[in-house]
From TrEMBL:
Name under which the protein is recorded: Response regulator
Region span, Disordered: 1-23
Transmembrane segments: none
Cross-referenced Gene3D superfamilies: 3.40.50.2300
Response regulatory domain sequence ranges: 31-146
GO BP, one annotated term: phosphorelay signal transduction system
Lineage: Bacteria, Pseudomonadati, Pseudomonadota, Alphaproteobacteria, Acetobacterales
Amino acid sequence: MIVEQERRPDGAPSRGSMERQDDNPAAAAPLALVVDDEALLALEMEDLLAGAGFATLIACSEAAARAVPAAALSVAVVNLRLNGELLGHGIIRSLRRLRPDLPIVVVTGYDSDAPQADLRGLGWPTVRLQKPQHGEYLVGAVRDVMAQAKCGARPRGGRRQVDRV
């Protein structure tokens, strides 16, 4: 499902711009939020996650991502760069303010050593995937970050092996 926060003329969110979770037949499945402004990539990630048993929401903008109730989420997959700006860090901070232990997979085209891809200060558990080859590793990374959150196991040495290139 794609989430876009519709607004009434007074600026308040309108009812019906989001499905209620208990009305959704896939409510028993873990819920993944995919935040990406590239529609084809977002749909590809949705397909991969759905194939692994996840219910998914797609948010194509910062406003839509912030409109999703963090308490309902099992995991979030967030692109750092949305609509030409580095908005992913703010989205992650916003989600973590509401739910500090939310597992998050960061998908980015930035190299792990690039300053734009610095994930320090964004909380834990967080896993990074590099574009464009992120697709083949997405489900594994989602399961990995969810397992870290569940058992409280932080990566040794502060960085995952794949980030130590």
